[in-house]
Amino acid sequence: MLANKASRQKPCHHCTHRPASVAPDHSTIHYEKSWLYRHCSSLVQGDRQSQKAGQLFSGLLAMNVVFLGSAFLSSMIFNHVAITLADVWILLSILKVLCLCWVVYYVLGTSQQPHAVLHRDTHAGPIWLRGSLLLFGAFSVLLNVFEIGYSVIHIQCKSQVQIVFPCIEILFVGTQALFLWRHCKDCIQVQHNLTRCGLMLTIATNLLLWLLAVTNDSIHEEIESQLRDVEQRLAGKAPLSHIPRNETISCTCPNTTACKVFQKGYILLYPFNTEFYLVCCSMLYVMWKNVGRRISHHHASHIKPKFKLQGVVFGPLLGAAAVMIGICVFMMYQIQATGSAPNREVFVMYYSYYIVLLPLMSAAAVIGTIIHALEKKDLDTVKNPTRSLDVILLMGAALGQIGMSYFSIVAIVATNPRDLLNSLILSYSVLLIFQHITQNVFIIDGLHRQPFAEADESKEEWNHEAHNQRRVSVLELGQEIRRVSLSYIHTYSHLSWKRKALREISFFLVLCNIILWIMPTFGAHPVFENGLEKSFYGYSTWFAIVNFGLPLGVFYRMHSVGGLLEVYVTA
C-alpha cells in the first residue's frame, strides 16, 4: 500500500520548496541544453554562414571582372588609340579560356563525385529556354564562321587576332550550350565555393561579351546609317568628317559573291548572338542559386503540367492573324526603309500596326489579370529561384523599351506633336509603356498561381468512351478526323470559362510577342531610322540609348513568350 501511495505521489511544480524525500525527475530531457542539440544547431548555422560567405565572395569576383572588362570597353570607345579592339579581344579570350577550363572540370570532376547531384530543380531550364539556347547558340557559331570567312577575304587589312578570336568564340559558345543543356537543373552538393566562383566568372564573361556585341552592333549600324547620309548629301558636297574612323571604310568588300554572303549573313545573325549571352546569364544564375540547395520530397515530386494545344480556338486565330499581318508589314518596311531614302508612308504603316495591336494586347492582359483575381486558387509560396529570376528579368528587360519610349515622348512634345508621324510615334510610345506594365502584371500574377489539378468524372468517362471507340471502330481516315474533332470540342466544352479565357489570352499574347520579337530582331529599327529623336538628342546620344534599350526589348519579348507559356500550361 505504501508503495502504491508512493507511486501515485507527484511532485508539486507550483511549490517553492521541494520535499527532501522526493527524488528529482530525470525523465525530462532538456533539448535546448543538450550537447547534441547545440552541436547540430551550430552545424546548421555554420552551413548557412558559409553559404552566404561563398555567395558574397563569388559575387565580388564577378563584380570585379565586370568592372575590369567595362573599363576596357569604355577605353576602347573613348580612346581607341591607347586601348584597341584587339586588346579587348585578348582580355575576353583569357576569360573564356578560364571558363572553359572550369566547365571541363565541373563535367568531368565535380559532377562525377559521389552524392554530387542529389536533387534537380524541375523548374530550372524549361524546354523552351533550352531550345532557344541551342537555336541561338547554333546561329552564334554560324555568325563566327561568317566572320572568319569575311576576315580571311580581307586578310590584307585585318589583324590575325580577328581570325583567332572567332575560333575561340566557337569553342566557347558550343561548350557552354551543351553544358547548360545537360546541367542547368543541377543542385550541386559538393565543392560549393569553387562551383559558385566558376559560375559567376562565366556569368561575368557572358555579360562582357554581350556589352561588346552591343558595341560592335552599334558601330556597324552607325557606319551603315552615316554612309546613307553621305549618299543623300553627296549632291551638296557635304563634308565626310562625321564618318567614324573605322577600318570597315578602308576594307571595302570586293565585288564577289562570297564576300556579299559573309557580309549579309553576319549582319542578319548578329542579334542572335546578343540573345545567346543573355539566355546563358539567366540559366547560369539559376545554377548559382541552386548550389547547395536541398529540395524537399514534396517539392521534388511535384508533377508539372504538360503543354497541350487543346481548349483554345479564338486565341490562335487572332494571334495568327496578327502574325501574318505583322510579317507583311515587316517585309514592306524592310523593302522600302532599307533604300537610300526611306519614305514617310512606310513609317506611318509601321506605327499604325503597333497602334492597333498594342491596345488589344493590353486589354487581353487586363482581362486576364481580372480573371486571376476572381479565381479561388492558392498562391504558390514554395521557394523557386527560377520564378524569382523570371520576375526580375521581366521587370528589368521591360526598362529598355519603357526608357526609350519616355525619351521619344519628351522629344515629340518638345518639337511638333501635331504632325501626323509625330502623333503616331507619341501614341506608340504611350501604348508601349502601358502594354509592358499590364503584361508584366498578368505574367507575374500567373506565375505565382497554383496549377489546376482536377480530375473530373466526366473527363474520365469521356476518355473511357474514346478508348472503347478507338478499339471498336474501323480505322478509316474520315472517322479518325471526326473522332479527333469531337475530342477537341469535348475538351473545350468541359473547360470552365475562366480556364478558357486564360488559355485564349495566353496563347494570343504568345503569338503577338513572337511577331514583336521577330520585327526588331531582323532589322526593323524605326526608332533610329525616322530621324526625329536622332535630330533632337544628337546622333551619338540617341544611338547609345537605342543600342542599350533595343537588345533589352528584344530579350523582353522572348522572355515574355516563356512566361506566357507557363501561364498557359498552369491554366
Automatic annotation (TrEMBL):
One of its GO terms (molecular function) is proton channel activity. InterPro entries: Otopetrin (IPR004878). The keyword Ion transport applies. It is a multi-pass membrane protein. The keyword Transport applies. GO terms for cellular component: plasma membrane. It is found in: Cell membrane. Keywords: Cell membrane, Hydrogen ion transport, Ion channel, Ion transport, Membrane, Transmembrane, Transmembrane helix, Transport. It comes from the Eukaryota. The chain crosses the membrane at residues 56-82, 88-108, 128-153, 159-181, 193-213, 267-288, 309-333, 353-371, 391-414, 420-443, 505-524, 536-556. Belongs to the otopetrin family. This is OTOP3 protein. It comes from Nothocercus nigrocapillus. The lineage of its organism: Eukaryota, Metazoa, Chordata, Craniata, Vertebrata. The gene is Otop3.
